[in-house]
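Q: Second attempt. The first request was missing the SMILES, so the protein and guanosine-5'-triphosphate are both included now.
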Amino acid sequence: MPLRPSIVERLARARGDLRMGVPVVLTGEGQAMLCVAVEALSVERLAALRVQGAVELALTARRAETLKARAYDGDLARIAVPADVGTEWLRALADPADDLRVPLKGPLRSLREGTAVLHRAALQLVKSAHLLPAALLVAVPHGLTLAGENGLTLLPLSEILPELTRSSPLHDVVHARLPMQAAAAGRLHVFRPEDGGEEHYAIEVGRPDRSLPVLARLHSACFTGDVLGSLKCDCGPQLKAALAQMGAAGAGVLLYLNQEGRGIGLANKMRAYSLQDQGFDTVEANHRLGFEDDERDFRIGAGILRQMGFSAVRLLTNNPKKLAMMESCGLTVTERVPLHVGQTEQNAAYLATKAAKSGHLL
Ligand SMILES: Nc1nc2c(ncn2[C@@H]2O[C@H](COP(=O)(O)OP(=O)(O)OP(=O)(O)O)[C@@H](O)[C@H]2O)c(=O)[nH]1
Ligand SMILES: [Zn+2]
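A: Got both inputs this time. The predicted holo structure:
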């Protein structure tokens, strides 16, 4: 292997850069652009970007819709950033926290000339870094030289696009016995992706027969529900009930997928909770932040199950998308096992919204 980092390694580095507010350089379609995440932007970096050229803001069409800004590129909007605005102006466009208090943010001039391919990649990158989906971009004439001279991560579009859409291979780095309250015969496997992303866990209960459909649960991390016992969702009781059911049956597999907040990360989920306190439901809150309802990659769970030798599942879920994704990844779902536990007064509206808007089965 050469010393130079591969594109997968540079992408992992770029996510770290973006979280720290360090620019990366995107190239493609004969263009080069500096890119910084708005959430991590400092006053000094904004000044340094302005020295390089005109600054543009990329927002998802979801966020643009709330801001009443034109999204000429379909799924995203490119907004011209006036020379006299500061980081606060930009942050207010990225973060809906004070939308209700300050509804008119603008006027916003959307750009329609040229291409949005680098902007699109920039938004995918900041999302994958679990930041607010808002990026600042500046076109520069010599991206390669600029990156080399300033030690910036260079990301050619042709190399990163396939990586941004594929699911990284995962490796079972370690597994060990873990007796649990719900099942004395437990075993925890830690799966680590090759792309430097989140690790995921598989909890095997008993020794499930690989030739038979296994009782399985794909559980997405919910720090608030799983650990703190939040009453706003049903995650904690679902986790407990799934393990208890596997313990009682003597066999099963629970995947604990680190896709907090349906894939947007805990900070963004807390932003969504704050919007929910302003009266928006779980889906509306995601949209106002600029995300889709559900940003999870369900292929990960299917991949882990296959790697563990399972080909058929009895899936504990109320989410039809999980069933569809299992099937499309080549796993047979022989049965959906409903998992209705943990309904509270506080989560009744949340569960009703999931049923009405996200197709959850009651
Ligand atoms: N963005 C966002 N995420 C939430 C909210 N409430 C819970 N979550 C997250 O939603 C996910 C719930 O995951 P799962 O328990 O796998 O749920 P599901 O898709 O409803 O499917 P089943 O439980 O299998 O029926 C977790 O990642 C939670 O952190 C919310 O209001 N906003
Ligand atoms: Zn939850």
